Amino acid sequence: MIKPQWQQLVNREANKDYFQSLTSEITKQRSSEIAIYPAEKYVFNAFNYADIADVKVVILGQDPYHGKDQAHGLAFSVQSGIKVPPSLVNIYKELSTDIKDFNTPKHGCLTQWAEQGVLLLNTVLTVQQANAHSHAKLGWETFTEQVITELNENNDGCVFILWGAHAHKKGKNINQDKHLVLAGPHPSPLSAYRGFFGCQHFSQANTWLANYDIQPINWHLPIEI
């Protein structure tokens, strides 16, 4: 269930023309032969774990995985039993060099991060099967801009980890007197070697949280679930 503060934001945006146009188009596509990911019940999954005041870290990606059964509403995460996608393979590689004793899981489910206050958010929340960025420009960017604004204004201090050009654009108005902004290349195989590897965003986030007396994130994940 969506947390109360986030639900207020969703309700507020749902009354706006852009959001009604967005949901109408997605409903139309779902009712045709086009497969849309994630499933409808998972579209707002990122908002089910930590409310606005409780978010410690935001990891911002682009749009959901577009393979069958991959996306479940948490950026970069896939459900247990689904092959770990290349971007997440690279995230695990970075974690193995950045976080002491990190052991690479055999799965790609990141819900344990979400439960600790990591908002795993994409700039666009839906996608057509096998068609990356197909729902860019439908209106999701406006919605996620409101999400970032809400956190910027109403969260006492969190870490924004922005990967890739789409995410970087979202960071331009974040108050860096209150929040930490870490920006780098996207972890996809196309760009990870341009500076994602070695970015140490996970340890930097925890150092910042600890300095503000906020419980750091346990980035370790069970090997199997």
TrEMBL record:
<dbReference type="InterPro" id="IPR005122">
    <property type="entry name" value="Uracil-DNA_glycosylase-like"/>
</dbReference>
<dbReference type="GO" id="GO:0004844">
    <property type="term" value="F:uracil DNA N-glycosylase activity"/>
</dbReference>
<comment type="function">
    <text>Excises uracil residues from the DNA which can arise as a result of misincorporation of dUMP residues by DNA polymerase or due to deamination of cytosine.</text>
</comment>
<protein>
    <recommendedName>
        <fullName>Uracil-DNA glycosylase</fullName>
        <ecNumber>3.2.2.27</ecNumber>
    </recommendedName>
</protein>
<keyword id="KW-0378">Hydrolase</keyword>
<keyword id="KW-0234">DNA repair</keyword>
<dbReference type="InterPro" id="IPR002043">
    <property type="entry name" value="UDG_fam1"/>
</dbReference>
<keyword id="KW-0963">Cytoplasm</keyword>
<feature type="active site" description="Proton acceptor">
    <location>
        <position position="63"/>
    </location>
</feature>
<feature type="domain" description="Uracil-DNA glycosylase-like">
    <location>
        <begin position="48"/>
        <end position="209"/>
    </location>
</feature>
<dbReference type="InterPro" id="IPR036895">
    <property type="entry name" value="Uracil-DNA_glycosylase-like_sf"/>
</dbReference>
<dbReference type="InterPro" id="IPR018085">
    <property type="entry name" value="Ura-DNA_Glyclase_AS"/>
</dbReference>
<keyword id="KW-0227">DNA damage</keyword>
<comment type="similarity">
    <text>Belongs to the uracil-DNA glycosylase (UDG) superfamily. UNG family.</text>
</comment>
<dbReference type="GO" id="GO:0097510">
    <property type="term" value="P:base-excision repair, AP site formation via deaminated base removal"/>
</dbReference>
<dbReference type="GO" id="GO:0005737">
    <property type="term" value="C:cytoplasm"/>
</dbReference>
<dbReference type="Pfam" id="PF03167">
    <property type="entry name" value="UDG"/>
</dbReference>
